[in-house]
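Appendix B. One record, verbatim.
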Amino acid sequence: MLEFDRRIKSLRKSRNITQEQLAGYLDVSPQAVSRWETGASCPDISLLPQIAALFEITVDELLGVNEAEKRREIGTVVAETSAMIDKNITGEPIRILRETLKKYPNNDRLLCTLMYALYAASEDEDFCKAHDAEILAIADRIFDYSQDDDCRNEARRLLFRHCCDTGRKAEALKIAGEMPEIETCVERNIYWVLDGEDRLSYLRERIADDLRALTWDIWAYETHAPLPPDEKRTLETLYTTIDRMVKEKFPEA
């Protein structure tokens, strides 16, 4: 990966642009361009999109970031930290994600995973209060910058739950009104375009997912409802039966 000074010098020369001309295009002094190319200083971050547009490349390309390498690194970090969070390990993934975001600011996948890590850790009431502002700020960044509907919807889901946990019921209801309805989501409709084994495989996964969701609903109802002992036992039996069915009938779904 080329250093920025070599990169911008190479780009300028490939377009047959002088330092004075580049300085004029960017409304900076020729001395500033000279300092960039010698590595004595770097342009203000606000100039990067303008420089990239001038050379008809992305900001990542301007900075010499290899896109495939970037995707691999981000994918690895997201997978590893998500696995930690699922095992109730929160401190280390939060540290890793914050560190990686220094390298890739505003990457929506990293931001969304950090928001998930902070939300998962917020079962600790003190932690929840201490990191409330960060959770809200991450949600705002995702809504402002991300073009990925999955990331935006996940951020919306996490923000909704965080607002519920922190007593912001009015805000939670407003967010709920912006969530996609289940009957219009891709998961409910995509099987219509599938054929043969693809359709059957997808439907098996859907059945397994729906059954898992049902066990969660049973657990939530049993936890919050003042039920007599016999009804609790009935629900516990139903939960166990469904959980075993998923594991036996849909082990790979």
